[in-house]
Write a structure and sequence with these properties.
With 490 residues, this protein is of the alpha/beta class. The protein has 2 domains: 11-147, NAD(P)-binding Rossmann-like Domain (Rossmann fold, 3-Layer(aba) Sandwich), CATH 3.40.50; 180-479, Dihydrodipicolinate Reductase, domain 2 (2-Layer Sandwich). It contains 16 helices and 16 strands. The longest helix has 21 residues, at 437-457. It is globular. It binds 6-O-phosphono-beta-D-glucopyranose.
Length: 490
């Protein structure tokens, strides 16, 4: 039986950036999905805010289009109910006008949950929070969600946190990292902490190394303007990849309570070995895609997409990361992420050590070390590579086979989008899957020396052809340690 969640308490969800791309592609479809299952209580409103002058009806039409484009099998009754919840208010944040209309809209509902979602450029986080404060729109039951990037380095992240923190208390601030809302990412916690099997092996005595790959086939497309100021290290590694690393590496929290989990993640971030300039040279690789073939067609290179042939922004990063603590001493974590790679795949590979001694004759074949592959997307699942005896008569021959648990086959259930869970958690006030201020700042403290060395040496990223696995130096990064990137087709 599918899990039917209890309805939320009454709420007003105010979405700044109401006509933006994220709202269209992710937020509206995610919210709609919670309607037919009865997760959104009757007395809940969604108030979209943006600069444009639109009527409620015009906005609802746009929202309906977003949902029909991004949701399979839309239930028309549920869609009708959902659209009725939506209202639209025009506020020009840059000009600081229109706030009275929002005040009016929210008046008289001070006792219901008031959730602000800032799906806008981070430059507006400060002005929006200050205006919400000045107009007395922040109530006891208010909370605010901010999207990454939170800053572009440690100093600017600190400033963003200070500004938002001057209006909202930390327990009201929800810093979203949508990777934490992915079903399989949470499954990682279930796998580690709801089984007794893995914990005794989960350390440097038994694990050789860990790989985390988040590969995309898409290029930067319409986001080139933002992306060129960020690059893969800020866009993906500072948040998504480091969060995944934390979930693999952290100690068992005392409970799923937000601060128990976040305290443990913070310890991992603090234990990341800071890179000296020499280590950055040796242990990181940055690349930039050139034209090639990707996702079934010819594609342009990054510089052509951007229309600027001098950009040195990286669209690919690989790094060898050390965690300086007892559990992970001498167990490198290899991270890699990039755009326009050979396939879209996000996975974590836990590579165990070789058996200490083989009792088999050499002609039994090679004993491959065990490997646990946690596939986050697509085809979510967990695969454990084990050795077995090749069935049949004759001499003993060994064979590597996967114990395969592909979730789509195991559970005939739709995987909710990360935003569905995260928005509902935010409404309920559960911060477990959101980043705390000190986590964000600790992640930057590790990233900053890399950024600083890269900007100091002023070298261009290594070019790679679209549709490949990145620059050859990324392969060299792992192979010089006698290891290889996990390849599904191996
Ligand atoms: C976003 C990045 O946070 O994550 C994008 O800004 C990236 O550049 C995206 O494409 C990847 O998310 P997903 O869920 O498609 O893996």
């Amino acid at each position: 039986m599918p899990n039917r969640p209890a309805p939320t308490d009454p709420f007003d969800l105010v979405v700044f950036g109401g006509t933006g791309d994220l709202t269209y592609r992710k937020l509206l479809p995610a919210l709609y999905h919670r309607e037919p299952v009865g997760h959104i209580c009757e007395d809940a409103r969604i108030i979209a805010v943006s600069r444009r002058q639109l009527t409620d009806e015009e906005y609802r039409e746009w929202a309906g289009k977003a949902i029909c484009e991004h949701v399979k099998d839309v239930d028309q009754d549920a869609l009708g109910r959902f659209l009725k919840r939506i209202q639209y208010v025009s506020v020009d944040v840059a000009q600081n006008t229109g706030w009275e209309a929002l005040e009016e809209k929210l008046a008289g509902r001070e006792d219901v949950i008031r959730a602000f979602y800032l799906s806008v450029s981070p430059d507006f986080f400060g002005p929006i929070c200050s205006a919400l404060g000045e107009h007395n729109l922040v109530t006891e039951k208010s909370r605010v969600t901010i999207e990454k990037p939170i800053g572009k380095d440690g100093t600017s992240a600190h400033e963003v946190n200070e500004t938002v923190g001057s209006v909202f208390k930390e327990h009201q601030i929800f810093r979203i990292d949508h990777y934490l809302g992915k079903e399989t990412v949470q499954n990682l916690m279930a796998l580690r902490f709801a089984n007794v099997l893995f914990e005794p092996l989960w350390n440097s005595a038994h694990i050789d190394h860990v790989q985390i790959t988040v590969a995309e086939t898409l290029g930067v497309e319409s986001r080139a303007g933002y992306y060129d100021t960020a690059g893969a290290l800020r866009d993906m590694v500072q948040n998504h990849l480091l969060q995944l690393l934390c979930l693999v590496a952290m100690e068992a929290p005392e409970s799923m309570a937000p601060d128990s989990v976040r305290d443990e993640k913070l310890k991992v971030l603090k234990a990341l070995r800071r890179m000296t300039p020499e280590m950055v040279e040796r242990n990181t690789v940055r690349g930039q895609y050139r034209s090639g073939a990707s996702a079934g067609g010819a594609v342009r290179g990054y510089l052509e997409e951007l229309g600027n042939d001098t950009s040195t922004t990286e669209t690919f990063v690989a790094a060898k990361v050390d965690i300086a603590n007892w559990r992970w001493a001498n167990v490198p974590f290899y991270l890699r992420t990039g755009k326009r790679l050979a396939s879209r795949v996000s996975e974590i590979t836990i590579q165990f050590k070789d058996v200490p001694h083989s009792i088999f004759l050499p002609d039994a074949g090679r004993i491959a070390a065990n490997k646990l592959v946690i596939r986050l997307q697509p085809d979510e699942g967990v695969k454990m590579q084990v050795m077995i005896k090749d069935p049949g008569p004759g001499s003993m021959r060994l064979r590597e086979v996967p114990l395969d648990m592909t979730f789509a086959e195991a559970f005939n259930a739709r995987h909710p989008d990360a935003y569905e869970r995260l928005i509902m958690d935010m409404i309920r006030g559960n911060q477990t899957l959101f980043m705390r201020r000190d986590e964000v700042e600790a992640a930057w403290a590790w990233i900053d020396p890399i950024l600083s060395h890269w900007s100091h040496v002023k070298e261009s990223p290594k070019p790679y052809t679209s549709g490949t696995w990145g620059p050859s130096s990324s392969i060299a990064l792992i192979e010089r340690d006698g290891r290889t990137w996990h390849d599904e087709s191996d």
